[in-house]
Amino acid sequence: MLTYKNILYVYSDSVDNQQGLEKAVKLAVASNAKLTVLFTLSNDTLPESLGFHQAEINNFISQKEYERDQVLLALSHDISIEKETILSNSYLDVIEKIKLLNIDLVIKPSENEGLLSKLFGSNDMGFLRQCPCPVWLVNAEDKAHSNIVIAAVDVSTNHPDKEIEIRHQLNMAVVKSAVSLAQAKGASVHLVSVWAAKYEHTLRHSAFLSKSQADVESYISDAKALHERNFSLLMADIEQAIEQKLLTSVNLQQVSIKGNPREALPNYAKEVNADLVVMGTVARVGIPGLLIGNTAENILYRLNQSVLALKPYGF
């Protein structure tokens, strides 16, 4: 079921690439995909302010090229790996390369840049916002392995019909990707959906609304029932689209959480020590300039796990 056929790994000199490269090779082998490693050269690699002579710069670059060839040689036992190099590490320049090479999955190590303990730095967020294909950001510092992949889905229906259809397609893509990756790494999948009774706080605490406790509880119960119905409908579609033996092999578990997605999902990922969170990044339909969606962006800022971020078809 793996559909990625042209994978690009973006090598970063600022972090440990071992985990990310191993994942990229393993996925490429499992999916019989082409793997390209893109090396970047930037001021972080060779500061202009040091005043090197041109000959020194040429020698430095030659040495870097040799070292990088050795990196690829050490990984090329089961697969042929192609190499690309650009004289930049800006996500905009890398995305142009991604378009040129017709890449369908980008894998790169996360670079937190020391920003308030956030796992993903500004360059990472640039990839998540603007890269035309799925982006897998690997937490290079995470050595723990719980063998749990979270597939985060949104089954709420309080959206325009067109947006509901887009979200459903994205949910299915999230689940299929999570199941495929979990199967490749021998992990289990937790299918997680977060729900809330939108006006619960207002009904409980407003001085201007006089609702009985029974009325409030009934409202919350109705919201929960609607969520469970929508979750069951999604699960029925999943069982139609994916073979039962495959769902069984990844021990697919449904997890329903009451709360705010931007808090509940990162908290759950931390609680189960998930290896990877697969999620969609979809903005509201018809709102130009929103490339990722406020809820998704807030969740990403709170996660400390590796993330595979998908966008809707046609992004």
TrEMBL record:
Where can this protein be found? Cytoplasm
Q: Which ranges form a coiled coil?
A: none
Which terms are listed as keywords in the entry?
A: Cytoplasm
Domain UspA: from-to ranges? 4-138, 173-310
Q: What parts of the sequence cross the membrane?
A: none
- Which Pfam families does this UniProt record tie to the protein? Usp
Q: Which GO terms describe its cellular component?
A: cytoplasm
The record, for SUPFAM superfamilies, names: Adenine nucleotide alpha hydrolases-like (SSF52402)
Q: Write down the CDD domains for this protein, in alphabetical order.
A: USP-like (cd00293)
> What is the top-level taxon of the source organism?
Bacteria
Q: What does this protein do?
A: Required for resistance to DNA-damaging agents.
Q: What does the sequence similarity comment in the record state about its family? A: Belongs to the universal stress protein A family.
- Protein name as catalogued: UspA domain-containing protein
What high-level taxonomic lineage is stated for the organism? Answer: Bacteria, Pseudomonadati, Pseudomonadota, Gammaproteobacteria, Alteromonadales
